[in-house]
Amino acid sequence: MNLLDRLNQDMKEAMKNKEKEKLSVIRMVKSSLQNEQIKFGRDLTEDDQLTVLNRELKQRKDSLQEFEKANREDLVEKLRNEISILEHYMPEQLSEDELLAIVNETIAEVGASSKADMGKVMGAIMPKVKGKADGGLVNRLVQQQLS
């Protein structure tokens, strides 16, 4: 079942169960997907859908950090709930060990030897782990391996 079908099905369930927050998040994601579809003028591929989901998740994580700094506990809890709902639609995340293996393999592929090759490695690795790993974690692991 593709993402849009899952969202529609979960939206109906959320309506039946009167889960307002879940319904709101699903509607926002569907809206973002539809806007992206209009922008491209074609149906979205699975990769495009994943990009939109990643963007939505990243926006919320960034906002969460800001609200935590500002001690806005009311908004922090709301965002944590939204993040957990969004993570439900993301592919299974890679463990740090799996990610480290991919990082080492990619470093060998591109022939990187120092931090100056960081951009080359990141450019090669991100398409491999798209949606399956946090970019910050990937960046940190690559830096560790190159130093």
From TrEMBL:
GO molecular function, one term: carbon-nitrogen ligase activity, with glutamine as amido-N-donor
InterPro entries reported in the protein's UniProt record: Asn/Gln_tRNA_amidoTrase-B-like, GatB_Yqey_C_2, YqeY/Aim41, YqeY/Aim41_N
TM annotation in the entry: none
SUPFAM superfamilies recorded: GatB/YqeY motif
Protein name as catalogued: GatB/YqeY domain-containing protein
Origin organism lineage: Bacteria, Bacillati, Bacillota, Bacilli, Bacillales
